[in-house]
Design a protein that fits this description.
The protein is mainly alpha-helical. It contains six helices and four strands; from the N terminus they run ααβαβαββαα. It comes from Zoogloea dura.
Amino acid sequence: MDGIPDYGHLYEVLIRAGELARVVSQSGLREFRSAHVIPPNGTEVLREITQRVGQDIFRRSLIDYWGGRCAVTGFDVVELLRASHIKPWSVCGSDIERLDVFNGLLLVPHLDALFDRGLLTFSDEGALLRSPTLGSEQWEALGLADRRLRLLSVAGGHRTYLAWHRTNLFRDCSVGSVDG
């Protein structure tokens, strides 16, 4: 037997591995049970939810408007792209704002997450503005260090929503290009 000094040592290792497996597999279940009242159907529960009616229409409209491509990178695998509201659905004043194609960008997931959290935004001309909340190493790791990144196009209808995003969501002390 290569690598194992003797059968006695192997036996001890296997016994210890079995003990650890039982402890580890049960600890997660114990933690879950202590933190949750388990419903009669086990780990699933039936919930009544409020669903966004029209979200599918909004997404299809953005796919058509942006030609099935990310509004910044041009990435064209539609099933991976996200229909992102510039002014979030929850704060829109009307259904018209919620479904307005100019209140939306089709984005790759990491740009969508950064945009939704106010870590990046866009100027009225479409230039990508980065929040100083993240450092240059983080922007580099995300592939967003290039200061020339921008929206592929900006229509007049986008500008009101982009201004709202810069004013209300963007984490910056000033509007304009950000170092970092």
